[in-house]
Amino acid sequence: MADYTGGSIQTLAVWRMKGAGPKFIRMGRHVRYRWEDVDAWLDALTEGGAA
Is 5 helix (H, G, I), strand (E, B) or coil? Predict the structure, then answer.
């Protein structure tokens, strides 16, 4: 996810704490993201462009 968004793992952790990032799944100590949740989150952030 960090590579996909160009952010860092720490940034993702901060987003999770603030509720600002995409939906995530916690599996024990591990955090996972579904591609469809990440894409939906990115689509919601998209601005401008030609229609």
Answer: helix
Q: Along the 51 residues of the chain, how does pLDDT read in single tens digits?
A: 899 888 899 999 999 999 999 999 999 999 999 999 999 999 999 887 665
CA distance 25 to 47: 27
Nearest-angstrom CA–CA distance, 20 and 28: 21
Helix ranges (DSSP H) in the chain:
2-5, 9-18, 35-45
Q: Contact at 8 Å (CB) between 33 and 22?
A: yes
